[in-house]
Design a protein that fits this description.
0% strand, mainly alpha, single chain
Length: 80
């Protein structure tokens, strides 16, 4: 079993990584919206972009949940 101090440090680092990734995701979304607003994308590209952003949101939700989960939550999700 790991010490509480080690768990807190790992969780803190995970939250920093998550914050950086959130900033990058926000930048990607802004750039995508700018391209859509400029009309530089075909309807098919707009659809693919929308699908990609939805998938990215889902992946971020899973990552956020994994990083913010408590130790007992992680132990319950480990397959036997």
């Amino acid at each position: 079993m790991t010490s509480p101090r080690r768990i807190d440090a790992g969780r803190g680092l995970g939250q920093v990584v998550l914050a950086v990734l959130e900033i990058l995701r926000d930048l990607l979304e802004r750039q995508a919206l700018r391209r859509v607003d400029n009309g530089s994308l075909s309807p098919e590209e707009v659809e693919r972009l929308g699908q990609a952003l939805i998938a990215l949101d889902r992946q971020f939700a899973e990552l956020r949940e994994a990083i913010t989960a408590t130790e007992p939550d992680r132990e319950r999700n480990i397959p036997s």
